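Title: Prediction job returns without error message
Component: structure pipeline
Severity: low
Priority: P3
Assignee: unassigned

Description:
Job completed but the reporter wants confirmation the result is attached to the right record. Sequence as submitted:
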Amino acid sequence: MATLSVCIISKNEEEVIAQCLSSIGTLADEIIIVDTGSTDNTIAVCNQFPGNLHHFAWCDNFAEARNYSFGLARCDYILWLDADDVLKPEDLHKLEALKVQLQHDVYYFKI
């Protein structure tokens, strides 16, 4: 079965990131959170969940932060989520079913 890294960029997301991380369930083989300078409790919230927390100095370039997170990923596939994204249980089950049969280089999801 293919492995999956979930990459998330955060900055001052204390109010939403726990719900995002909780919604991932067991889908991810690794979770990579790249914080770009939070001054709230985002980091403390993230530390309550399994995952790798990294820091990236914000350079006013979202693509650089996202690509940095991708560079840290070690699994076969990457799923990128915003810190305020939440996977609905039915979508989580669909992704878990897809994970066992991944065969293409890229998948796009309609949201």
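Comment from assignee: result matches the submitted record. Strands lie at 4-10, 30-35, 52-55, 77-82.
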